[in-house]
Fold:
Amino acid sequence: MELPPDWQLAVRALALAVPAVFLLASLFVTRARAFRRANLVTGAAVGLAALVATGSAFSASASDVTLGVRLDLATSVMLMLVTTIGLIIARYSRNYLRGEPGAGRYVCWLLATLGSVSLLVIADNLLVIAIAWFATSITLHQLLTFYDRTAALVAAHKKFLVSRLADVCLWSGIGLVYFTVGSLDLDAIGVWVAAQDALPPLLQAAAVLFVVAACLKSAQLPFHGWLTQVMEAPTPVSALLHAGVVNIGGFLMIRLAPLMMHASIAQTLLIAIGLTTTVLAALVMTTRVSIKVALAWSTCAQMGFMLVQCGLGAWHLALLHIVAHSLYKAHAFLRSGSTVEAWRVQDITGPSGPAAPARLAMVGAVAVGAVALVTLAGTFDVSTVALSLIVGLSLVPMLRRGLEAGVRPVARAALQSAGIVALYFGWHALASHLMPEIATATAPLVGWILVALGFVGLFAIQSVLRADPNGALARRLHPWLFNGFHLDERFTRLTFRIWPPRLQPRTARAPIGVGEPLEAQA
Structure:
C-alpha cells in the first residue's frame, strides 16, 4: 500500500521537523533547565523519527515534491539511530555534568550537533549534505573543547585542520559533479551516471576526492591522532563522536553508491586505505591499557572495515555496520567505568595465560570447518566465501576461551558462534532484500582476495603475539605498536609548523611534548 501524495508530503515535512526541532531548541537553552529541555527535545525527535520511518515504508521513492528530503531505508535507519543515541546521551549527560557551570553551553552545542547530523541524514542534495557536514564539525568542536585543557585544545585543533582539509576535498568534488552533471540532487546524479557507458574523468576525480574526504573524516591512518586524543572531552561527547559523527564518512559513501560503484579507482582506494587502517589499528589496540584509548583505536579499525565494505560494493553491509558499531560504541563509552572495574577483577584473579599453539590450531580448524559448512550451504560466490572467512576468524577468540575453560563453556561458545553466524548472514540477506538497488557487489575478484588475505594476516600476527608474547616478533613489533608506528607524532609536528594551536594563557605554560604520544597524556 502506498500513501497518497499529500501524506507523502507530510512525511517529508516530519523529517524536516527533526533537525528543525534540534536547531531551534539549541537557540533557547537556559542553564536552569538545560538538561530537562534536552531530554524533552531528544524524546520528541525520537517520536518524529519513528513516524518518518513508518511513513517512509509506505511512500514512493520518487515524488514531485520532495522538500529536499530523501525517503528511503537508509534515511529511516539513520534518523532513528541518531535521535535514539541523542536521547541516551542527553539523559546520561544530566548526571555526568550535574553542577557544571557550563551545562547550558554544553546542551546548546549538543542539540546543534544532533540537528546538523539529522539534516545531513535526510538531505537529498549534495550541497545540503556538505553544509550540514561542515556545521556538524563546527558544533562538535565546541563540545570537544568543553574542558579548557591543553590536551583537549590540541586534539580539537588537529581535528579542525583535518576536517577543513576534508571540506576542501568534498567541495572540490561537488564542484566537479555540478560541472559535469549540472545538478547536485542525488537522484539526478544517479540517473545521469546510469545513462553513461563509462564514467568520465571528471567524475572519476570527483569520486576520488569524495573518498579522501570520507577517509579524513573517518580518522583513517595517518590522520587518526585526533580521534585517540579527544579523551579530555566529557565521556558523553566521546560516545557521540564515536557512535555517530565519525560514521558520516561511510554514510556519504552509501549515499553516493550509484556514482561510486562505477568509479573503480575510488573503490580501490577505499579498499587500500580501509584495509591498512583496519589491520594496523587492530594491532595497535592490543597494546593500549586505557579503556577509552583502546576504544578509540577500535573505532579507527571499525571505520576502516566499514570503508572496505564500501570499496567492495557491499553498501548494505556498510549500513548495517554503521548501526551495529554506533550502538556498541555508545554502550561501551557510557559504561567505560564498569569496564574498568571488570578489568580490575580480571587482573586480581589472574589471566588465563597464553594459548598454546596447538590449541590455536585446533580452534582455527574448527572455525575453518564452520566457514566451509556455511559456504557449502549457500553459494560459491566469492563475496560469501570472503565474508564467511572473516566472520569465522572473528569467532576464534570466543571459541578459544571456551576451549580453555572446559566442556560446557566450549559448547556454549559453539552455540553462540552458530547464532552469530546465523544472525550475520540473516541480516545480510534481509539487507540485500530491502536495498536491492545498492546490494550488488561491484569489486573485482582481486579486491575480495586482498581483503581476505589482509584479515588472515591480521589473525596470524595476533595469534603469534598471543602464543609467544615474549618472542622475537613481539619484541620487534611492540615498540612500533605502542607508539602507533609514530604516524601521529609526525603529523603533529607538521601541523604545529603549518598552523600552531592557539592555547589559553593558563594552559600554554604546559606545552605538549611532540616526541611523546599525545594519547598517553590524555
Confidence is low (pLDDT under 50) at residues 345-356, 505-522. Residues 150-181 form the longest helix (32 residues). The CA atoms of residues 49 and 80 lie 5 Å apart.
